[in-house]
Specification:
about 140 residues; alpha+beta; TolA/TonB C-terminal domain; six-stranded antiparallel sheet; 3 helices
Length: about 140
């Protein structure tokens, strides 16, 4: 069961957070939080996601109760295609691999210059937080 919650905030950088919870491991709940950051260029409307999916929590790390973060950057061209995916940092290589695989599946409507109306490329950065927590007795009792 996956629940995805969207939280949008506007700062000098625009941050969009996605939060997915999945309780497939007995006794533990896992969550992956994804935060997008795009540069706020003057007169440029940022790209908007057409389809986003959440990364899988690496099974080998979940079994060992390992949590961590991966930060990746990528570019979106004037057609909405993603390219130049790079790992900026990762607490574990498996977190980076999971994040990179999901970014490759995403699609966006490209950024647009508000004055000319032309699509423009834009760089993005995403922070993926992989977290685990113990289930409460009440949650465990509700399992089928």
């Amino acid at each position: 069961m996956k629940n995805i919650i969207f939280i949008i905030t506007s700062l000098l950088l625009t941050a969009v957070q996605l939060y997915a919870v999945n309780d497939t491991w007995i006794g533990h709940r896992y969550a992956v939080e994804v935060t997008f950051f795009e540069s706020r260029e003057k007169n440029v409307n940022p790209p908007s996601p057409n389809s986003l999916s959440m990364p899988d929590y690496p099974i080998e790390l979940a079994k060992e109760l390992i949590t961590g973060v991966a930060v990746l950057s990528f570019s979106i061209d004037e057609h909405g295609s993603i390219y130049d995916i790079k790992v900026a940092s990762a607490d574990h290589e498996s977190f980076a691999e999971s994040a990179k695989k999901v970014i490759e599946k995403w699609s966006f409507t490209p950024a647009r210059n508000a004055i000319t109306g032309k699509n423009v490329p834009m760089k993005m950065k995403c922070r993926f937080s992989f977290n685990l927590s113990e289930k409460t007795d009440e949650e465990e009792a509700q399992r089928p």
